[in-house]
Amino acid sequence: MKHMSRILLLVSLLFVSTDAVSAQMNATEGLNRLKALAGEWEGDGGPNESSITISYEIVSGGEAVIETRAPLNEPTMVTVFHLDGDSLMLTHYCSAGNQPRMRAVALTDEIMDFNFVDVTNLSEPAEGHMRGLTFHFDSEDIMRQVWTWHQGGEDTSSSFVLKRKD
Asked: Which of 49, 93, 117, 137 has the fewest CB atoms within 10 Å around its CB?
């Protein structure tokens, strides 16, 4: 009887583990999720709770997605999403003059989480730069983004609520 209980426990754990793994997307599915954002988005948020317009464009024969961010009264910034082998990567061309790269560490239907890999054009590590980005997909037409800014050894987050434009 003990042997049968152990087998049932192992089988149930196997099904739980399989469900958790199947919920995670691979990098190609993650890029396809970003392709589905193609078009114009608008919303507000950030440190000043100001308006922002964001567009997504599929480029390079479907191999990359460009996000163009146009915050009100701030310079336009660009982020390029692309595959790197089994990873989904981004390079953010920041108005601060640096270019952080991040790798997706979580890809599901609801969340896409990118963590810092490295940064170019940064004179010293204490200078301000983006360290993380998380997408929260509430529906096909509503999402939230949380950007993490790192400066002087401290992180601060800015959240944006975005809706697809008609």
From this structure: 49
